[in-house]
Write a structure and sequence with these properties.
Blueprint (H helix, E strand, L loop, with lengths): L8 E8 L9 H14 L3 E2 L4 E4 L12 E9 L2 H14 L10 E6 L4 H10 L6 H10 L3 E4 L5 H9 L9 E8 L12 H10 L3 E2 L2 E2 L4 E2 L9 E7 L2 H11 L5 E9 L21 E8 L4 E2 L5 E6 L4 E6 L6 H5 L6 E9 L8 E11 L4 E4 L11 E2 L6 E2 L6 E2 L5 E4 L7 E3 L33 E6 L6
Parallel strand pairs: 3-12, 16-18
Antiparallel strand pairs: 1-4, 1-5, 2-4, 3-4, 5-6, 7-11, 7-12, 8-11, 9-10, 12-25, 13-15, 13-17, 14-15, 15-16, 17-18, 18-24, 19-23, 20-21, 21-22
The structure holds adenosine-5'-triphosphate.
């Protein structure tokens, strides 16, 4: 990393894979590091970024999130030393984490931006990450097997400056409370959900499920997502958690933007663990399976594949109502083959583009008495059972069937959303760029904290 002495420099700091299933959390480490950077007088030039990468990566811990903090400082060396040490000390090394932390001064180079855009939907190797880092003068430190470098560069290269983005306020528990049940007032969550239409995925109305609080041993108390910092801060303030918290931080994020589903997949070229969307034709009538899941074959001109819609998504009924010849678009991830099935498209949304005309095939009606006639055998015409009228020239009648579904977009229920899934309420609200005009008041809270700001 090249540095200029004396001048205030733009430094991109990114890290990933600091946690394990037993505890810790990369966003919590980001909260701690940001708090210290602020105290050191370092200026942020954006909200800390929480970037979700390809959700189909099998070695992710939970939501495949990585973090990037962009700052201006006159002393990059001090920042590098402090952050490197914090990541080393604050990671679950030896307990499943393979952290990396990366630093870059100056502009984001195109090859890094490209690497990041691929990390949203494809699988990248550590060797590729090292090559991109070396080519661009990115200083990095890895621990464990170093796989965290992929996520670190994925986050660093994602500026979220020309497309869609959202915000999340994540609040953190004090160490002594981690591992105990989180007490979240359900009625207040429902109230916030109704009062702040610019927040999303706080409450699943259909399943009556609170979605803001995780259940594991990690230090996250709750996360509130929304379109802008003001609405999530107001919702958090209204929530009034009773637990004394360590603090909270507002992140800018690609969550809720469908960023992983932007590339068109061709069925004959689809690779396991990748994500994207497919425009295809339903090849045969979908069948409901045990457990309420639905499996059906689709084809796109390049090949055909099985698509799976799982019961918890709430999309199984729609999938089961599809029929041969329907033209659909599906957002999906490619599941690896198992002993029972070849690779399968795991469906994340269904957009019905065109419904095929499906016919009921019936015997003709008797011209004399109106009863439906019986076939006399192939090419032998039909005869009426009741009045015995025979009609050698009569043929089968094709009656168009009434379809129970309509063209349109069908999304999973909120409780089944991935972090990157764009919720229905965000369609039409997509942003088309970001210009940093300073951090909002109260974007960061720490120390013996109870949600009472702004009152
Ligand atoms: P949490 O959400 O709790 O922070 P996580 O689900 O983000 O955890 P990590 O512990 O960060 O999981 O592990 C994800 C690992 O996958 C990291 O090592 C990261 O570098 C790597 N990774 C992320 N995206 C890709 C990708 N597209 N290709 C290959 N590896 C990836």
């Amino acid at each position: 990393m090249s540095r200029q002495a004396g001048e205030s420099e733009l430094v991109h700091i990114a890290f990933d894979d600091t946690d394990s299933r037993l505890g810790r959390c990369t966003t919590h480490l980001a909260f701690k590091i940001t708090g210290r950077l602020r105290a050191m007088g370092v200026k942020l030039v954006d909200y800390p970024l929480l970037i979700r990468l390809n959700p189909n990566i099998p070695w992710k811990t939970r939501g495949n999130g990585a973090v990037c903090i962009r700052v201006r400082t006159k002393d990059p060396d001090k920042v590098v030393d402090f952050v490197r040490q914090s990541v080393e000390e604050g990671s679950a090394i030896g307990a499943g984490a393979n952290p990396a932390v990366a630093f870059l001064c100056g502009k984001i180079p195109p090859s890094l931006a490209k690497f990041s855009s691929i990390a949203m939907f494809d699988v990248l190797s550590r060797q590729k990450a090292e090559k991109v880092a070396k080519e661009n003068g990115i200083e990095y430190f890895t621990f464990g097997n170093g796989q965290g470098l992929v996520g670190s560069l994925g986050a660093m290269g994602c500026l979220l400056e020309s497309g869609d983005y959202t915000f999340e306020l994540i609040s953190y528990r004090r160490p002594e409370n981690c591992g105990t049940p989180r007490i979240v007032d359900r009625n207040r969550v429902i109230e916030c959900h109704g009062a702040f239409p610019d927040t999303f995925n706080s409450y699943d109305e259909k399943n009556k499920r609170v979605l803001i609080a995780p259940h594991g041993p990690d230090p996250v108390f709750c996360g509130i997502r929304g379109e802008d910092p003001d609405s999530i801060l107001s919702a958090f303030s209204m929530l009034q958690p009773e637990e004394r918290l360590d603090g909270y931080m507002v992140f800018r994020s690609n969550q809720g933007t469908n960023m992983h589903l932007q590339n068109l997949l061709k069925l004959n070229e689809s690779k396991v663990y990748t994500a994207g969307y497919v425009r295809c034709r339903v090849k045969e009538k979908p069948q409901a399976m045990q457990g309420g899941h639905v499996l059906f074959a689709v084809e796109d001109g390049s090949g055909s594949m099985l698509a799976a819609v799982y019961e918890p998504t709430g999309l199984a009924k729609i999938a089961a109502s599809l029929d041969t010849g329907d033209i659909i678009e599906i957002g999906c991830g490619i599941r690896k083959p198992t002993v029972k099935h070849p690779k399968v498209l795991n469906v994340e949304y269904i957009r019905i583009l065109e419904l095929a005309c499906i016919f009921d095939v019936l015997n003709p009606v008797c011209k004399i008495c109106g009863k439906r006639m019986k076939s006399e055998g192939k090419n032998k015409g039909f005869q009426c059972d009741r009045c015995k009228y025979r009609d050698i020239a009569a043929t089968k009648v094709y009656l168009p069937k009434r379809r129970s579904i309509e063209p349109g977009l069908y999304l999973p229920v909120p409780k089944a959303h991935r972090h990157l899934t764009k919720p229905l309420q965000r369609y039409g609200k997509e942003k088309s760029g970001f210009r940093f005009s300073g951090l909002c008041r109260d974007w960061f809270g720490s120390g013996n904290f109870q949600a009472s700001f702004g009152n």
